[in-house]
Amino acid sequence: MKKNIFLLLFLITIGVAAQSVRKYSNEFLNIGVDAGAFGMANAVVASTGDVNSGYWNPAGLVNIEDKELSLMHASYFANIASYDYAAFAMPLDNESAVALSIIRFGVDDILNTTQLIDDQGNIDYNRISLFSTADYAFNFSYAKRLPLDGLNVGVNAKVIRRIVGDFASSWGFGLDVGIQFQRNKWSFGLMARDITTTYNAWTIDEEKFAEIQGAVEGQNQELPETTEITIPKLQFGVARTFVYRYDFSLLTEVDLNFRFAQTNDVFSSSAVSVTPSAGLQFGYVDMIFLRGGVGNFQNVQQIGSLEGDTSVGFQPNIGIGFSYKGIQVDYALTDIGDQSAALYSNVFSLKMDLSIFR
Q1: What DSSP designation does 158 have?
Q2: Residues in the chain with pLDDT < 50?
Q3: To the nearest whole percent, how much of the chain has pLDDT over 90?
Q4: What is the full DSSP assignment across 285-343?
Q5: DSSP-based three-state secondary structure for 186
Q6: Residues 61, 336: contact at Cβ < 8 Å?
Q7: Predicted pLDDT at 245
Q8: How many Å apart are CA 38 and CA 319, to the nearest integer?
Q9: How many other C-beta atoms can be found within 10 angstroms of the C-beta atom of residue 96?
Q10: Shortest CA distance to 159 belongs to which of 169, 170, 174, 178?
Q11: Is 143 within 8 Å of 97 (Cβ atoms)?
Q12: Which of 195, 101, 102, 199 is nearest to 153 (CA)?
């Protein structure tokens, strides 16, 4: 009897050898937040300085002057998946600040057809149920100015919750550390994600697993191991702001993104892989913003090539923003894959300086 094997394959993929390292664990945390950052191809680790710094580089939180709130929603994969984000930040004094943020990436109303066919081989559509799979991240951020002028440091403590219906769930914990240094018109940033490695512990419903264990004929699937470790990643950026006649500004930034594993990044070795990203933001009187960026340079295998030829794929993004009296609305048109292999997504975000309500 054949059953839907989607759940079986999903449960197998989340299981790895105990305490094993995975190149692509908790990948939803690498998507990013804030339409303004997306418009610049996520090249903001050196220039970020608002409530969204809690994600991009917590050291930038020291630049906020009052309480700030940020909200974002995006739909991916032709509206199959929803990506939502909310953050709040506030200064503690002139030297430090804190932030709290929540991220959810989920697919809802998935058809569970594992019980569609009963033991007698009869199809009963009443046996179909719905479930959701969702990833959550809860970040607490703290930032502090250091005695050296222009040097700031920040840290994230994050809790990760991942749920696959009633079938499996996990808790994860990790730390990020960020540094920013500003000198004249130049800004430098370094963000170390999962610096302690992020540990995820899965709990799998063995009864549910047993119901689909024989879905692939001729194979005896074992219950997956239940722990995984996310290896550290680094993002280094350099930014500079140019001001023209007081009203016009141009922010430029170039970042390098490092993974300590061999991937399809444009520069890759067995020890480290690197992909660059670059973004710019043209502003008028700090009210209207036009953004553009390119990143995620990958070596892409050519389909149908007999010799394994590859080409370089990349991700172009554009965006606009409007700010007035403490309220800023941003929009980005972004491709989460490359310039041809994935659909573009529309991302909207809202940022508010809560001092406007006083």
Answers
A1: E
A2: 1-20, 220, 338-341
A3: 53
A4: TTTEEEEEEEEEEEEEEPTT-SS--EEEEEEEEEEEEEEETTEEEEEEEEESS-TTTS-
A5: strand
A6: no
A7: 86
A8: 8
A9: 15
A10: 174
A11: yes
A12: 195
- Using one digit for the tens of pLDDT, what is the confidence trace for 328-352? 999 999 875 544 445 678 899 999 9
Report which of 357, 300, 353, 346 is spatially closest to residue 320, judged by C-alpha positions.
346
The whole-number pLDDT of residue 4 equals: 39
59 secondary structure, DSSP code: G
Q: Looking at the chain, how many residues does it have?
A: 358
Residue given tokens 């991009």 in the structure block: 56
What integer pLDDT is reported at residue 15 of this predicted model?
A: 40
Q: How far apart are CA 60 and CA 55, in angstroms?
A: 10
∠ CA 133-137-140, nearest 5°, is 165
Strands 344-353 and 81-91: unpaired
| pLDDT, position 11 | 41
Reported as type and span, the H/E element at residue 173 is strand 168-183
d(CA 40, CA 46): 12
Closest to 71 (Cα-Cα) out of 273, 338, 339, 327 = 327
pLDDT tens-digit readout, 185-226: 899 999 999 988 888 888 888 777 776 666 556 554 676 677
pLDDT for 235 equals 96
Task: Compute the radius of gyration of the chain from its Cα atoms.
Answer: 22
Q: How far apart are CA 347 and CA 321, in angstroms?
A: 12
Q: Is the pTM of this model over 0.90?
A: no
